[in-house]
Specification:
The structure is a homodimer. Chain A is an alpha/beta fold. Helix content of chain A is 32%, strand content 23%. In chain A, α4 runs parallel beside α5 and α5 crosses α6. The longest helix of chain A has 24 residues.
């Protein structure tokens, strides 16, 4: 807090690197664009916390409109959101084990924190935890719609689990989750749309079968930044779990050019040698699952190697001490590495936002 | 602290996953093996903090013997080591910019914290910071011995920088650093040894040239876990900056089978589907630069996909709730993701050690 006070209003030059920098205008433009895309439609956005792990960004997303609540990838993220005042969370993943199910139940004392399930054992322990805590936990059955990760098959398997959830005291069957993660990064928009429709068909069919069997389905949740415009238009889909649209990264920029890159990594050149420069961030400060970061404002420059604390940049005229801005290929894992983001506008530090969810906290 | 007290002595089953687990006997065996390898030789080990980022492990390394001090990859790590009582640190990297050079100088008030340099601009600002703080900063000129990252060329370029350091008030020319990072992972031991000798030749020649020119060289520092046995035997090399030997990982185990894997990631199975299981860690909890993690004790099992919060494992008979132990391919980036390590012996939690250096803290 005192560090924040001493930084606000200062020029960006005082930022010590490597540092995560947020462009607040780009963030607001992205939130507005997503909200407008859903205005007047029955489907809502449930923004994913995992892409930024910052409660302040989550509140901005809630304020932008067209919102169902927040999506989290794990229990610890949900705890941080609820502690920060978020009142409606879906943990879009399984929460397994005695301690974690107990903590999930406790969260439901002051908020609505739903969870995805795909096994009988997990349903049983969630019910036990809910009864112990004297709460009801809302549950979505996770359906595998082609990604081959978590989730049971659409159709009878899903109906069977839904029946068990409905029959389990302490749990409330709220609906289905299906994530078309295998489609979100398909470069060709038409091919992507086709794969989305193909994936979502069995999910919405299963919804209708559940309703026909007398099990009301409040929520069918799925989708992401790569598929929001097609998934969000399919009848029977209630929520799109888009995350990356808020801050964006180099990988998503290729499939979603309509959103602006709002998050960058500010670095300093620490060494200049024949033909290349070295900047002071590496794989411990920038997520490289989708390749090395790009150099902002310098299309002629290229990161050719990433070590733990160094990136090697060719094609850049630089001196030791120069600042270089990088665009991560993968923003989600980048935010996971930092404790704070500098909000910078017009060359000045406007604010410093904590990244409550960073690090592998169980 | 109170969390630690409540956990010590409890069975490992209470550990909430994903969690970093340390085998203290394997750690001690690794430290002893490295110390014995250097006993009676002029060369010392300067263990690298970057591989574990844990001050408690650093102190164990210091206590094991044959030690020159600790190596750090960045200023923030050096600050954590000094705050934790380490008195001799080399930052094996450039520390650039007004604030960072000021902080480095301040560290030298109560400890010896040397730094590598490879540019005139950086030497000038380090001298300025040292004079302002009224301290002397010990400096190693970094020499590029084939890795093509930081460092100037061996020979005249290095001599020229050494002369400038010597002439800069506030700085003390202490010697040279050269890291044969391009050789440390070469699978064939003989080829690796040959490349080490080739890389180190120009470095030790430059040392002799400096001494012939009247510039005493106290320290020539380089090497790593992959090359410690050859680099540590070369005349004119004073320190080996080995790091990974302490905790090890799957990648280094291939080139260094004599050290034991002391660090693992404990996970829980959260979903079991036809032909595979999903465990509750992903790229936000295990460093995958050198490939997916291996499954400990189950050579028949294989991690075939890593998402942000999931690994997909084939060939493993498992139920939801089962524990699965993973061996990271890359330990350095794995420790960077956790705030603590559970020390587990005989199925009981012996201690919980903070990982002070984790996260991208500038």
């Amino acid at each position: 807090v005192s560090e924040r006070r001493s930084l606000v209003g200062k020029p960006a030059e005082v930022i010590v690197t490597p540092a995560l920098v947020l462009d607040p205008d780009a963030l607001e433009a992205n939130l507005t664009l997503m909200a407008e895309g859903f205005r007047g439609r029955p489907c809502r956005v449930r923004p994913h916390f995992k892409g930024h792990k910052c409660v302040t960004v989550a509140h901005r997303q809630l304020a932008a409109g067209s919102i169902a609540g927040i999506t989290c990838a794990k229990l610890a993220e949900a705890e941080q959101c609820v502690a920060g005042g978020v009142r409606d969370v879906l943990v879009a993943n399984q929460v397994v084990g005695e301690e974690k199910t107990r903590r999930l139940a406790a969260l439901n004392r002051g908020a609505t924190v739903r969870v995805a399930v795909d096994s009988l054992d997990n349903i049983a322990e969630l019910g036990e935890a809910a009864r112990q805590a004297n709460v009801t936990i809302g549950v979505l059955v996770e359906v595998d719609i082609g990604m081959a990760r978590c989730g049971v098959r659409p159709g009878p398997e899903t109906l069977a689990l839904a029946e068990v959830v409905t029959a389990t005291e302490g749990l409330r069957f709220d609906g289905l989750q299906g994530y078309e993660g295998h489609a979100v990064m398909i470069p060709d928009p038409e091919e992507r749309r086709r794969r989305v429709v193909e994936a979502m068909g069995p999910l919405t069919e299963t919804r209708r079968a559940l309703e026909a069997a007398g099990m009301p389905v409040r929520i069918v949740s799925g989708g992401g930044t790569g598929t929001y415009d097609s998934t969000g238009k399919i009848e029977g889909i209630d929520e799109v779990q888009a995350g990356s649209y808020a801050l964006m990264d180099a990988a998503y920029k290729k499939v979603r050019p309509e959103f602006a890159v709002a998050r960058t990594v500010l670095t300093t050149v620490i060494s200049v040698q024949d033909g290349y420069a070295i900047a002071d961030v590496g794989s411990k400060g920038v997520g490289c699952e989708f390749g090395p970061p790009s150099v902002a404002d310098h299309p002629e420059a290229e990161v050719v190697k990433v070590s733990e604390e160094h990136v090697k940049v060719v094609g850049l005229r630089a001196r030791v001490g120069d600042r270089v801005t990088l665009i991560p290929s993968h923003g989600c894992t980048t935010n996971n590495l930092y404790r704070k983001m500098y909000v910078v506008k017009g060359g000045r530090i406007e604010d410093v936002w904590p990244i409550e969810g960073s690090g592998c906290v169980e």
